[in-house]
Structure formats: C-alpha cells, structure tokens
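A quick word before the example. In earlier lectures we treated sequence and structure as two separate objects. From today on, think of them as two lines of the same record. Here is Ammonium transporter Rh type A written that way.
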Amino acid sequence: QGISPGMLFPKHPVGESAAELTSLLMFTVFQDVHVMIFIGFGFLMTFLKRYGFSSVGINLLLAAFGLQWGLLMQGIWHLVDGKIKIDIFKIINADFSTATVLISFGAVLGKTSPVQLLIMTILEITIFSINEHLVATVLGANDVGASMIIHAYGAYFGLAVARVLYRPGLRNGHENDGSVYHSDLFAMIGTVFLWMFWPSFNSAIAEPGFTQLTAVINTYLSLAACVLSAYAISSLVEHKGKLDMVHIQNATLAGGVAVGTCADMNIGPFGAMLIGLIAGIISTLGFKFLSPILASNLGIQDTCGVHNLHGMPGILGGLAGIVAVALGKKENGDPAMQAAALASSLGFALVGGVVTGFIMKLPFWGQPPDQNCFDDSIYWEVGNPVPHKYYLQCLTVKHHKWQRQWIPCLLKLLDEWFEDYIR
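And the structure line, produced from the sequence above:
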C-alpha cells in the first residue's frame, strides 16, 4: 500500500485540539526554515577566505534584527482588535521577510559596514511587507514558495544597492575576494543544509494536507534534477571537465528557488523536474559567463552571485507560475495576476534598492575603504596564526631529498609570514 496524504496529515476534530495539532506540526516546519536562515544562509557565504566571521556573525545579527522588524511590519497589515497577533505562522513569515535581506546581503558581502546593513534591513523589510500584501491580498497571486516576493525581490534589491555602492577601486578585483580550500568546504555546509530543508521552506505556508504534501514533493524532485544539470553544465564549461565549487555551492539550489511559485500546483513530477533542470542550467551558465559581464559592463559587483542563484531562477519561477496557472494547474488562478505579481516584485526591488543604496551611501554610516573590504579584522578580533600556505610549503620541503634546504626555506617562510603579519 502507498502512503496517502491522510497518513501524514490525519484528520482530527475541529476546535482547539485541531489548532494545537496544526501548530505542533508547523513547529517542525518552522525549525527547518529557522535552520535555513541562520545556518544555511550564514555558512553559504563563508567562501571568502578572510570574511568567515562576518559572513556567519553578521548574518546572525541581521536575521535576529530582521525577524523582529518583520513581525512588526507584516503584523500591521493583519491587526486583530488593533493588536498584532503572534502565532507559529507569523514567525514563519517573519523568517521569510528576513530571507530577503540575507539574499541582498550576499550581493554586497564584504563591502558594507554592519550599520549600513542594519539600515538596509529596516528599509528592505518595510518595502517587502508592502509588496507581499499587494501580491498576496490585493492581486491574489499564488507564490507559495516565494520565488517572486522573496528570491527575485531580494536578489534585485541587492543588485540595485550594489550598483549604487559601486566601487571603481575594486574593478580589477581584491586580493581577499576569493576562496581557499577550507572556506569552500565551510560554504558547502550551508549548501547542504539549504538543500535538505528547502522542501519545508516551499511548503511552510501551503494549505495543510494534500496541498502541502504536493509542495514538498515538487520541491524535492526539482532540487534533485537541478543537482544533475548543475554538475553536468559545470563539467562542460570548466577546464578539462572539472567541477567548479562555486557552481556546486550555489547552482544546485536553484531548483528550489525556481519551483517555489508553482510548488503547490498540480504540475506533476515531470513539470517539477523540468523546472529544476532548467534552473540548474541557467544558474551555472550565469556564474560562468554573466557575472563577469555584470561587473565589467554594468558596474554591478555581485559578491555571492545572487543574480544567478536567486534572481534568474526567481524570474523563471514567476514565469513557470504564469504558464502553470494558464494551463489550469491551479484552481481559481489568474495568469494576469501572476504576471502582475512578478512585475510588482521586480519594480519594488529595483526602485527600493536604488533608494536604499543612496541612503546607505551617506558618508556617516562607516562604509569600509577599498583596502579593508572582505576582511574580518576591521570589525572582529582576529588571531594571527601562521598562514596555511606556509605550513604546507614547509611540509613539502621537509621531505625533499635535499634536507639541507629545509632550514633556509623555513627561515624564508617565517620572514614572509612576518611581512604578511606586519602588512
């Protein structure tokens, strides 16, 4: 016998006991979303070799502040007797509002001060709450997994901010704007947590029961297909068929983003996997070819590549939702309202991002100078261990057949390390 939705979501008497059961079931979903916000997003951005403290630490700060502000801003639209009622659904939505900020944080990672980012959090969540109310209540559009109102909105908001905060001094890159072996490994921790819990993210606000189970299954299949296409395309476009860790860390998640809008629709396994397959392709190609063009030609210095992970897949999700509704995959859906929701999300993101960027550009917010970008030491107490590269070089030389070279080499490496320490 197969598993029926009733086994996973049993029917109980209506009333207080049913409400308690629903809250208990939703708490597990809330935990999954919470892990994505604090561990998934935080560790995904630890790929920068000297910015790991800030990636995880400032992520924690912004998320903790943002969820409080999100409760307030979203609660204003749903007052009960003049008060903001807080329940399990409200705190899940507060986490959702925080996700938009963390996506935008990725676009300006390493180039902004904590104060600037707190200002961005206040403004972005405020604008998000307006757009979310417009899309969900006024337009009545379907976006259960928030491809449009979270991912596309957060990505293009961040890109607009990054464009306003453009730094000519970083046109040719920065010595710390890159990864090392262990920082990429830490980032993969974030990837795996996000990948595992994305079905909960896309189904969190779906109607409990069969609809919620549908959202879980569609996301599950889309993510799986996305991984295969991301690996395949990465191998095709890289030298000698090797894999690029940047692609694997990010593009493997694009399927969860893209299937969000129609996650609870009857698109079938093939539809879900097709969306994931396309998302993996466009995300990987975006990291390989589009990001350099945005940086060199448009002045958009997208540190984490949020355009490729959240922006383009978010638009793909919005377009997929329009097509799915037009094909009758969602009862009482209107493709025109879906299109209006996508346009609204992009419009609020671009205009709001530009305005926020100019506010963040004011000189008294403490924006770090170019030479201190992508460096934890400007905001954190950082120790000074011997750099990993020198340690490996010493081990390599130690076993060289000319043992007499080891001591002079060690002295030279210590001298180089001392120069790095002073610098």
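Notice the following. Strands lie at 79-80, 83-84. We will return to this example when we discuss secondary structure assignment.
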